[in-house]
Design goal:
about 110 residues; alpha+beta; Nuclear Transport Factor 2, Chain: A; 5-stranded antiparallel β-sheet; 2 helices
Amino acid sequence: MNDSNGSLSPWMIPLTLGASGIAGFFAGKLVGNRRRSANTILKMITNDFKREGTVEGSWIDHQPIPYRQFAVRTLVYRGGIRRFEDDQLVSYEFLADASTGTLLKLKRIDN
């Protein structure tokens, strides 16, 4: 006699959930490690600076470099921005996380 009259095998649900979990894990690894482009990050930082005044110029290295602060290691873009503050042109250099665009370091450069 055949016992498969439309009922599910007791292993079908755990196998399906396990396969879905593994597929989700690998999809997350593929999508989660993407870097933002240097131009996108520069545009984000420039827009932040524009909220406080006029930006006169900006630049960014398109090749990310390794950066370590304490136990955290990441890739960063190095760049700079110039704007007027109190009628004087002021320059800044920055390091921005290549994955998120988060500003990790900002340093005012004395001219």
